[in-house]
Structure prediction request, 109 residues.
Amino acid sequence: MHRVDKPWGYEEWLEVNEKYVVKRLMMKKGNQCSLQYHEAKKETVMVLSGTLTVYFNDQIIKMAPSDTLTIEPHDIHRMFAENEDCLYLECSTPELDDVVRIEDDYGRK
Prediction:
């Protein structure tokens, strides 16, 4: 397993191959990822513990454990751990570097 520390928490890469990627992500309370979209990557997220607030194409979605959301290419999205730490899975197509950041709290481009 490969761990990637992020300013908002961390990712653990559980499986990476030419067909799909599975990651376990932990987002710390009060943190959020970039407002972003993907050119080609399609992903499905499932909350394991905590609650996740998702900005998704001009909607706000509150996700609880076992809730899932599929994000298609070009869907604008941002995950936010508003009230507590949140652990969730991300299963996606294998385009690991396909991130177009619109806004970022941590100064990343």
Summary: The chain has a mean pLDDT of 97. The longest strand covers residues 9-16. The two ends are 26 Å apart (CA to CA).
